[in-house]
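Figure 2 data, in text form.
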Amino acid sequence: MTGALSGSNGGRRRAGARGLMEYPKIAARPRATTGRMQQDRNKVSVVNARGNVKKLNGWKRVGVVLSVLWMPVGLLMGSSEAIDNATWLIGATLESCLKADGSDWAKCNATYGKAWPGAVAQSHHWLWGIAGAIIPVVICWLLAWALVAIVRWVIAGGFKSS
């Protein structure tokens, strides 16, 4: 019976040309998805560095959803704030024009209308919008990570006095 599995030991020994050979015992790795997580296919998943799919727990899913919902809000708020600052600066110019020229509204308004697009373009409002979208998300994730790390550290014993 050369090359065939022998015995009732689950195929751990094999009869070969050099006699019985032992296969190395490989510890079974527990499956990452068991029970309820395996049945629920609507959960958000993340692929880790090894290419394995890892299901996110409830708090992480909430964080991902809030991060995605914040992105357009932060983009619009940051962009709007930069445009408002540029408008305020040009408005100050309009106000000084009205004080200097008396009440020649048409001339000052024409100057304001020509200066406003350039001021908005120079305000880099899209960069401020992107910063308003990304920076708060990064800060919140770092704070959440720090909070979880501190809570786990305290539960593990914190400062152990000798």
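Caption note: Strands lie at 13-16, 19-22, 45-47, 53-55.
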